[in-house]
Amino acid sequence: MMAISKIQVRPIHFRFPDTIERYWLGDSAYNTHLLNSLTLLLPNIERYMNHIIKQQLPHITDPQLQQQVRAFVAQESQHANQHTHFWKNLQQQGYCFEGYVRYAQGIWRRLMQHGSLALNLAIVAGLEHLTSLMAEIALTERFLDPAEPNLRALFEWHAAEEIEHQVVAFEVLQSATRNYGVRLLGLVISNLLMLGLMNWGIILLLQQDKKWGDRQVWQDLMQFWFFKEKLLFRAIISGLRYARPSFHPSQKDNQVLAARVLHSLNPHPSSPLRL
């Protein structure tokens, strides 16, 4: 097993005032709803991942990995809880998303019920690979700079911790199976589900705002996927790297980035982070 950097579980409490504007990310409806969609989607994904990872925990013999799995689960639980706190704000703004959340939740439930543990672990590793890529984009492309301060802190903290624990899910998968085909199938399923559900959430929220005819929405969409953040191209390249038989997440040189962001949010790690 390759060395895993230490994962810290940080007590954290976010507050989202009722005065947060509808388009809280640079007054962009598209960029705001991209992150709103993730806020609705991620809590159930993180609970799914925790459920699957904990099933493998009794079979892990390496004490370091056992410790890191427990820290991973604690971090993901906090991510789910903190994002869910913002749902109240979205409801107060008039958005209806309960059906969307239930449908997405049903997908993860069916995977747990009908998929093998090995396949589900591969899906979890694929999800972590994609979310760590999205975290890098958020933190390096200044995408979050114009965000409302509380929500900017939420997404920066979440992104940095995704990078911090990016190795764990892959190592847990390796502890269960080294089947290359299963690993690739998990990557494909995870990317299709994550990106598909994320885009459905964006469409749902933009439809409720009657914004699909807005020229700026389409400009921001093209910038994010193709021209500035280039998520589509980066996801393809990142997937090809993941498909290399010798791939390991520790090959990514991004831990310094995560540490810098986390230190800027909480320069005194022994104290709870309150925002």
Weakly predicted, low-confidence segments: 267-272
How much of the sequence lies in strands comes to under 5%
Largest sheet report: 2 strands, parallel
Oligomer: single chain
**Discrete helix count:** 11
Number of strands: 2
Query: Rg from C-alpha positions?
Result: 18 Å
Euclidean distance between termini CA atoms: 37 Å
**Portion of residues in helices?**
55-70%
Strand order of the largest sheet: 1-2
The chain-level mean pLDDT equals 93
Q: Which H/E pattern describes the elements?
A: EHHHHHHHHHHHE
Shape descriptor:
globular
Structural class: mainly alpha
Task: Note the main attributes of this structure.
two-stranded parallel ribbon, mainly alpha, 11 helices, 275 residues, globular
Can you give a write-up of this model?
Mean pLDDT is 93; it is low at 267-272. It is globular and about 50 Å long. The protein has helices at 29-56, 63-85, 87-92, 98-114, 117-140, 149-164, 168-176, 180-208, 215-227, 231-242, 255-265; strands spanning 12-13, 273-274. By secondary structure, it is mainly α.
